[in-house]
Amino acid sequence: PPRLSCPKSSFNMRLLMCTFTDQLITIVPVAVAAALSTYLLTRYFSSQSSPESRVNMSVNKDSPKVVHSFDMEDIGNKAVYCRCWRSKKFPYCDGTHTKHNEETGDNVGPLIIKKKTP
Ligand code: FES
After folding, report:
1. Ligand 1: centre distance to CA 81 (Å)
2. C-alpha angle 18-24-28 in degrees, rounded to nearest 5
3. What is the CB < 6 Å shell around ligand 1?
4. Which residues contact 19 (CB under 8 A, 6 or more apart)?
5. For 51-72, what is each residue's pLDDT tens digit?
6. 55: closest CA among 33, 86, 31, 98?
7. CB 66: neighbour CB atoms within 10 A?
8. Are 97 and 82 in contact (CB under 8 A)?
9. Model pTM score
10. Measured distance CA(89)–CA(38) in Å, rounded
């Protein structure tokens, strides 16, 4: 873009505006590059899941996604499913969430599905 011809001396409004414009021309690209770099680095590091941030520590780790499906007819009168991912009987709750909650201060518990009794 065409640049203003800035006077080299004498303080006046035009000199002030030229100085401001020169600073903006320098600062804006640096600020944009810094913001873009921060955004890309944040996205990169947030996509890297560390073992500490994982919920599933041991269930079917060789599978890309752990999914269980049940037919309602097969559940019976009551089923208790683990939501803490610590159960040795996963997907069923075995009470391990109590120990997990005591050790971590967490408050997770099972999903209980039961039929209404008439
Ligand atoms: S053992 Fe995981 S919710 Fe009970």
Report:
1. 7
2. 165
3. 82-84, 86-87, 93-97, 108-110
4. 6
5. 777 899 999 999 999 999 999 9
6. 86
7. 12
8. yes
9. 0.59
10. 43
